[in-house]
Amino acid sequence: MRHTTVFSILLLVAMSPANAAMFKWTDANGNVQYGEHPPAGAGAEHIKAAPEPASTPAAPSLQQQVDALDKRLATEAEQKAETEQKKQDAENRKINCTNAKNNLEQLRMGGHRLTRMPDGSYERLEEKQQQDLISKNEKAVKEFCD
């Protein structure tokens, strides 16, 4: 009988509204009782309700997780492409620097040496043409060499 009473009380407590007042008292037989309305003169103790559990933030949906992963992968791919481009640019600058220094060295040797033209033919440069190429290669050395 006692278990049934306790179960009934717990069931009532669980079903009662959360904001309803709950009391605890001891009856004439020495049994602890719970309820919303204590008997008069029973010396009931007011019981505070347990606080509501803190709401936890909702986990991101699967689509949100996929979108976040896609964004992260796209960012990583962009960074990798940017790094590769910078590496390629540095290599090109190094090659251009070396070529400009070599051309400048050849042009400064003086004389009427044969010079290979862009179309693949060879010509002897006049003094003015040679000075123009020297200026052009000096600018290239400044631009491409650190």
Task: Summarize the structure in words.
The chain has two domains: 2-47, no CATH class; 77-144. With 146 residues, it is of the alpha+beta class. The model has no long low-confidence stretch (mean pLDDT 83). The chain starts with a helix and ends with a helix. The protein has a three-stranded antiparallel sheet with strand order 2-1-3. Strands 4-5 form a two-stranded antiparallel ribbon. It is built from three helices and five strands. 54% of the residues lie in helices and 12% in strands.
Please specify the SSE layout and strand pairing.
Layout: H1 2-15, E1 22-26, E2 32-35, E3 45-47, H2 62-108, E4 114-116, E5 122-124, H3 127-144
Antiparallel strand pairs: 1-2, 1-3, 4-5
Determine the strand fraction and express it as a percent band.
5-15%
Mean pLDDT: 83
Indicate the percent of residues in helices: 40-55%
In DSSP terms (H or I, runs of 4 or more residues), the helix count works out at 3
The Cα radius of gyration reads: 45 Å
First CA to last CA: what distance?
95 Å
Number of domains: 2
User: What can be said about the biggest beta sheet?
Assistant: 3 strands, antiparallel
Uncertain runs are: none
The sequence of SSEs as H and E is HEEEHEEH
- β-strand number: 5
Class of secondary structure makeup: alpha+beta
Based on CA inertia axes, which overall geometry fits? Answer: rod-shaped
* Major sheet: arrangement of strands: 2-1-3
The gist of it:
The protein is of the alpha+beta class.
